[in-house]
Write a structure and sequence with these properties.
Radius of gyration: 23 Å
Helix content: 40-55%
CATH class of the largest domain: Alpha Beta
Number of strands: 11
CATH architecture of the largest domain: Alpha-Beta Barrel
Strand order of the largest sheet: 4-5-6-7-8-9-10-11
Distance between the termini: 42 Å
């Protein structure tokens, strides 16, 4: 078998087992022409892919896909057939979108597999009125509610960049969540969360907002604080008490250090809070002296501090990028590259040695680059980082990283990255559900170079150790120390 045919065959099997496949365009194969070129475009949860037919084996790959979707095309000599589109939109049930993953999990993964999703999202804009009701300042609360009633949208939010996440509305399921929920007595957001947890096979889900991840771009600092607190109240008062498997990390408005410290004190003891998160791009550097009491308070409580990557087209550098895909690839990573550089070189790991630090939704490919780059610079100018007692890479290896979105086009590079970051003990599984580029547990479980113990650690036990989560009796195991 040719190498390209083998890779297509492996990819087809992976798609069939792990994805809810949709044909974008009906595939037509001219009758009587063996080996004629054609193509079929497939949507699945992480990427778009095109399988090109250039050989009989290539057609067999597509035939496997067609058979799963209900088509019938045993070889290229059959008459032309069309396969109908299976459309996923804002009304599609979560359980239908994730049905193939659930089936694959039952077939291929151990029943006692413990899985924690440390970065999932809900679309809080669907419940924006409930959040605005919790704005603590009465004047801003009244103004926001009036604007929501008269103008719609997200009053008091600020985003001047075009939102192209839905790819021209071709991947619309994250734009709004309009699927039916018939459960009474339970908040709709919890119904949707439980559907996702059951379908993905999760024991815990740590949930973050979606539009509010851009809150640090808001030009009014007081609104960063008020909206962040209102959202946190909505989650901890409304949702977490009803679902003990659902956790969250509080938004931390570091632009106002005093307000950030008060948030840690107000919410640090609330049930379901596992830490605090600094989102996206911030005008205040993370090593600013005014933030030291904030970090000290989080460390003293034994909670985690996360840096969640964010998307922006509103910086001078990003404005030179003319494609959304380029901005998306770079901006989610650049903010955390800057935060990590400032965090390490200014000696934060030495000042707060027990503070558990996590880097979320920037993928992994950037981390080895940062290790080598910072080590190289540091060794030439040690005097500029006087607080450091070790190489920057040694501090970085003690931090935690989420996999999503996991770059996996080259397994050799993935393997070397896992070795560099000590993935067996420091990597955390994240889905980023329901966003368009989400990753299912198979991205970890299917990696051929990991032992089963390493897979179990990454998918669940590392997070249990980090967040002090209780592991169910039927799923207990020993995480690698």
């Amino acid at each position: 078998m040719r190498d390209t045919d083998r890779r297509c065959d492996e990819l087809a099997r992976h798609l069939i087992d792990n994805a809810n496949i949709r044909l974008n365009h009906p595939f037509k194969q001219p009758a009587g022409r063996r080996g004629a070129a054609g193509f079929v475009s497939l949507d699945f949860p992480t990427v778009y892919i095109t399988v090109v037919a250039g050989s009989t084996r290539g057609f067999q790959v597509k035939n496997n896909i067609f058979n799963v979707l209900g088509g019938k095309m045993d070889d290229s000599r059959h008459e032309t057939r069309e396969i109908g589109v299976q459309q996923i939109d804002v009304h599609t049930d979560t359980r239908d979108i994730l049905a193939r993953n659930k089936a694959a999990a039952i077939r291929q993964r151990p029943a006692d597999l413990f899985v924690v999703d440390i970065d999932s999202h809900h679309v809080e804009s669907e419940f924006w009125g409930e959040i605005l009701e919790r704005i603590e300042d009465p004047v801003h609360r009244e103004n926001a509610l009036a604007l929501a009633k008269s103008a719609g949208g997200l009053p008091y939010m600020y985003n001047s960049a075009p939102n192209l996440q839905s790819v021209g509305d071709r991947i619309p399921h994250q734009s709004a969540r309009r699927e039916k929920t018939d459960v009474t007595g339970l908040h709709r957001d919890l119904v949707l969360t439980r559907r996702a947890m059951e379908s993905i096979g999760l024991d815990y889900m740590i949930v973050f907002p979606t539009p509010l991840l851009g809150l640090s771009d808001h030009p009014q600092v007081e609104m960063q604080v008020l909206l962040g607190r209102a959202y946190t109240h909505w989650v901890v008062d409304n949702l977490l008490p009803q679902e003990p498997r659902m956790k969250t990390m509080c938004l931390l408005p570091i632009t106002d250090p005093a307000a950030a410290l008060q948030i840690v004190k107000d919410f640090g003891d609330r049930k379901g809070i596992v830490g605090f998160v600094i989102t996206g791009n911030n005008n205040k550097p993370v090593h600013h002296n005014d933030l030291m009491p904030v970090y000290a308070e989080i460390e003293a409580r034994g909670l985690a501090l996360a840096f969640h990557g964010g998307i922006t087209w509103n910086t001078n550098q990003m404005r030179t990028v003319n494609r959304f895909i380029g901005m998306h690839a770079l901006s989610f990573v650049m903010c955390n590259m800057i935060h990590l550089t400032n965090w390490v070189l200014n000696g934060m790991p030495e000042r707060f040695p027990k503070l558990k630090v996590i880097w979320i939704e920037s993928g992994l490919a950037w981390v080895p680059f940062m290790m080598q780059r910072l080590d190289n610079e540091y060794l030439m100018r040690v005097s500029e980082a006087p607080l450091l007692k070790r190489l920057p890479s040694e501090y970085i290896r003690e931090m935690y990283f989420s996999n999503q979105p996991m770059e996996r086009t080259d397994l050799d590079l993935v393997k070397s990255t896992f070795k560099a970051i000590r993935a067996e003990t420091q990597l955390l599984y994240a889905s980023d559900w329901p966003h368009w580029d989400f990753d299912l547990p198979g991205v970890i479980w299917d990696l051929p170079f990991l032992s089963e113990d390493a897979k179990r650690n990454i998918l669940g036990f590392n997070a249990a150790r980090l967040y002090n989560l209780e592991v169910p009796k039927d799923k207990r195991g020993i995480a690698v120390s």
